[in-house]
Amino acid sequence: MTKRIVATVSALLIIALGCGAGFWQLTRAHTKIALAANLLARQQMPILSANAKTWALEEASERRMVARGQYIPEAAIWLDNRPRPIPAAGTTSSQSGFYLMMPLRLTDRDEVLWVNRGWAPRNNENRETLPPIKTPTGIVNVEGIVFAHPGKVYELGDGRPMASLDKPKIEQNFNLVAEGDLRGWTQAPFILREEKVGMEDGLLREWAPLTSGVDRHYAYAFQWFALAVCGFLFWLITGLRQYRRQGTGNRI
Description:
2 domains
């Protein structure tokens, strides 16, 4: 009797764990799908102009925006440990590299807009060797999508930028507010992720869709639900075997 109680409690725990984790994975998948649908809907709204006025993050977030200005390459920030957004054709492993964050001084406005210009591969032999990229001189038009930040990775420390203003920097994460305080700039409260592809500037802008990983969540959910089913079947089969043994013993 005691063994049966232990088996029942163990089975219930496995079933609860499997079902809970499975539903959690399904929730994550559905959340990604909803976010992607919302992003697509906002991108289909009229394109904003960064030069028209000072936009709030709530107004511009996930909207398409065009900005006209001049890059400030000496203030660029290279964000390290960023995998290639979409793996190269024929490969499955992610390649490590950088996101290039570069400020754009807007024309006809005393304001700076930080632009995520794209991804570039890292030199595996020397991390300090920055990828060779080209930056257009003069006034340029940049079109992309507005985000609050370029994405974050785990890092040690407080994430404050190094007090160096005379050369590009390698950072783990991008702190928009701290950069503005450090340089004394008036900045837009968001970043613009450039979307233009086909430019021969050494950068890739083939961004991964927000729904990437949905299939993986469904696969994980299936595994967790399978674990719950196995727990139930184990409890059922062991119970039937014990019942048969007890029935055989009573007949003898």
